[in-house]
Amino acid sequence: MVWIKKLGNLSLFCLQRMGRMGIFFAKTFFCATTPPLKFSWILKQICFIGFQSTLVIFLTGAFSGMVLGLQGFYTLNRFGSVALLGPMVALSLIKELGPVLSALMVTGRAGSAMTAEIGIMRTSEQIDAIELMGLNPLRYLVVPKLIAGVIALPLLTAIFDVVGIFGGYLIGGKLLGVGEGTYFGEMANYVGIEDVMEGIYKSFSFGVLITWVCCYKGYYAGFGAEGVSRATTQAVVLSSVLILFWDYIMTSLLF
Amino acid sequence: MIRIEDIYKSFDGFTVLKGVSFRIERGEILALIGGSGHGKSVILKHVVGLMRPDQGHVFIDGSDICHLKGYELEQLRSRFGFLFQGGALFSSFTVFDNVAFPLREKTKMSEEEIRKKVFRELDQVGLAGAENKYPAELSGGMIKRTALARALVRSPEIMLFDEPTTGLDPIIAHTTLDLIKSIHKNLGFTGIIVSHELSRIFQIAHKVAMLHEGVIWAIGTPEEIMSSKDPVVDQFIKGGTGTSIKFY
Question: ipTM value of the model?
């Protein structure tokens, strides 16, 4: 009977946390869709989440594309289908790797920083200070990040895809001898706008997911340095797992 | 103006407040004293609605803040100024922007009017010339004074001071309390001060309440508290090592 009680308590705890997370999102969504929106704060966050992640996205995209070019070339060579290297690299990047890896990199670089920043503001009573001015902290701390995430993630994913495709061409084309016309020509034949849109939808939803989870974890961070560090770890782990889980759901729905 | 009625509050099974009640009239300053960790800051957070009691009520001009939500709560909170123990300054803002923030967000003042008002407040707390510094570049005293300027910039009706002198050297501590006294003279706010600078706050406060074992153990004018024969009050005020007060 004891284990049933424990299981019940655990279930109630999980339900309560999920409910709190849902209410947090609903309140943020309401603030994001009603004026006043803090445009300067949003721009600052676009710069932080988007622009400052460009280098890491560029590097990740380049190496992912290069690995795909290399692996793809030798795999396709077995079947005599090297001409399809371009579409293979492009589809892998645009539909899966671009959105997912970009989201994971942004989680590591910007998501963890979001949680830590909001967590420190919570423990140093800065969030209480905003509330006591008669203001809604979500409008200032969470909404700009949510909107910035939704704008920045698709753009970063687009950069990732383009850099990755050229990375693949660098290896497959320049190093291993697949012709430029073959690589890009076949790509144009096999990759449609619906494939691009699939990647865009995914990255858009990952933008929401990352900012929601990371801001939520920071907003309800525990007390002191330990509380903030725990919240940051949880935010990165939970965001990463949810990105992979949601990617599967989106792929199932979009096919 | 502020009426606290029989509030109880527990954290993880540990009851901090066990039926706290007191009232403060308009324009009065109440000094809240008591041992560290006895729940003084918890009372302040109940007064502004940052915490909700497990039981009891907190009335501000007849409105029970415990039952207010959304816009009504925001409106009521606009009447408060709160000086946090650690200052709670926004670390990414300069001193100027910290003080200007409530004016920019809650009033329709022009940037020029805000500039004048902020400079006047900073001058009042002795921070003229520090407006472009960031909180990380300030000393403890400067942080407290910036936070004081920010709390006062909208001329609040009710001011709550959570240990305004903790961590400051004696001279700055006394200057800060003198500043609070002179600002009270000008603005006439209703206030609660939590402080351990007993001799000084007894000169500022109209009433003193001592929190002990989760209840208001003694309340009265500073003179009444100073001359109290209660062993707990006596030990606390004289800072003795008697056995009346248990330390946690």
Answer: 0.86
